[in-house]
Structures are given as C-alpha cells and as structure tokens.
C-alpha cells in the first residue's frame, strides 16, 4: 500500500557547538513539535472520517507521527482527538464558540481534560479546514440521488391512453437526478389537474411542517 505522509518528520543530527539550549527554549521546541504532530493527526482523522480517504489508517498515522508511543496510548490519543474534532465539526463552531469550547476543555481536571498543545493544534486545524469539513458533512447528510434540477411545461392532451379524444391540459415535469460524482438521470412525469392539486396539497403540508420546526428552533 502506498504510504501517504501526513506531516514531515525530521530527525536533526546533534551537533555540539559548546553551548546548550536553555530549558525554556527546549520546552518551546518540544511544544512546537507536539502541536505539529497533533496537527498531522487531526489532518489524518479528517482525511479518513470526513474526506473518504481509506488509505489513511490508524496504523499509518501511528507509524508516521508517533512511532515510539505504545499502541494503547496512541489509541487513546486518537479517540480523544477524533471526539474533539467531531464535537467542533457537528456544531460548526465559529471562532468565539471554539475558544469557549477549548477553554472549558482545558479547565477539566483528570484524564478527560485537554492539554494546551491539543487545544492549539485543534484551533489551528479548524481555522484552515472548517469550510471543507462542513461541506463534507452536508454531502454525507444528503439523500442520494439528489434533485439537481426541475423543468416543466403545460400541454394539451389530445388523446387518452385508451385512444379516447381529450383536450385536457396536462403538466409535463422533468426531474434531473444525480449522485455525487456521477452523471445526471432524467425522470419525466405527467400530471393532470387532479394530480397537480394533490401534489400541491402535499407540498403545502411539507412547508407547514418545516415552518413549525424553524419557528421552534
């Protein structure tokens, strides 16, 4: 299977110039590397969960980003970051909502809390991926095939299916249907005035139901 690197991992050679980094500098470098790895993990989760990239697996993410971390520890981190991303994505949080959410998460005590590195990585990731994740969720929630277009015309029916003469007006409706990434299919329907009234009544009921939900939300 072709390997898809999530983020670059460099292993710099140690060169001693006779001086040593200060503890604060070393800590900052470690924090930056942690945020970078977490960003790669979030990107991998999004690729797998939201973008449909089946080549991205947990095993690949572990090997690329956390090769020295025990499997159980990585699994816990993976599930935690996936859960955080899901909460943010489902709510489609804006910047203010995200900041409040991350503040609440970092204030939690015990193993359920979020570290500052995890919060920083999630904030950075969501800033760049919010629109794409939202579009993916919308696409996943749509029924397939979806209605792409509708055209109609009114015609005079000169004869019935039994060969009887008729001058009744009929509506000819053409529906354009399609699945994501596929060509359209067309369905032609014919309605007389009775069927049109039945359809309009049903559409009115649907509109009333939608309005009641919107007004209560």
UniProtKB/TrEMBL annotation:
Give the Basic and acidic residues compositional bias ranges: 13-23
Give the highest taxon in the source lineage.
Eukaryota
List, alphabetically, the Pfam families matched.
COMM_domain, COMMD1_N
> What range(s) does the COMM domain occupy?
146-214
- Membrane-crossing segments per the record: none
Which GO biological process entries does UniProt record here? copper ion homeostasis; negative regulation of protein localization to cell surface; negative regulation of sodium ion transmembrane transport; positive regulation of protein ubiquitination; regulation of proteasomal ubiquitin-dependent protein catabolic process
Gene Ontology, cellular component aspect: endosome
- Region Disordered: start-end pairs: 1-28
Report the family membership.
Answer: Belongs to the COMM domain-containing protein 1 family.
Q: What is this protein called?
A: COMM domain-containing protein 1
Look up and give the organism this protein is from: Hemibagrus guttatus
Q: What is the lineage of its organism?
A: Eukaryota, Metazoa, Chordata, Craniata, Vertebrata
């Amino acid at each position: 299977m072709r390997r898809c690197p999530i983020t670059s991992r460099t292993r710099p050679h140690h060169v001693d110039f006779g001086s040593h980094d200060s503890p604060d500098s070393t800590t900052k470098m470690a924090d930056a590397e942690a945020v970078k790895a977490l960003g790669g993990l979030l990107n991998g989760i999004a690729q797998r969960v939201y973008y449909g990239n089946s080549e991205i697996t947990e095993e690949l993410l572990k090997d690329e980003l956390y090769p020295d971390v025990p499997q159980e520890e990585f699994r816990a981190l993976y599930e935690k970051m996936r859960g955080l991303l899901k909460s943010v994505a489902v709510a489609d949080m804006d910047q203010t909502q995200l900041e409040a959410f991350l503040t609440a998460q970092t204030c939690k005590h015990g193993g359920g809390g979020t570290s500052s590195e995890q919060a920083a990585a999630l904030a950075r990731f969501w800033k760049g991926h919010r629109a794409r994740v939202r579009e993916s969720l919308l696409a996943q929630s749509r029924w397939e095939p979806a209605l792409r277009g509708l055209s109609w015309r009114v015609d005079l029916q000169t004869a019935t299916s039994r060969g009887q003469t008729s001058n009744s007006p009929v509506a000819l409706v053409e529906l354009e249907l399609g699945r994501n990434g596929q060509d359209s299919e067309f369905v032609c329907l014919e309605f007389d005035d009775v069927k049109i009234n039945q359809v309009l009544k049903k559409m009115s009921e649907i509109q009333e139901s939608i309005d009641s939900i919107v007004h209560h939300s």
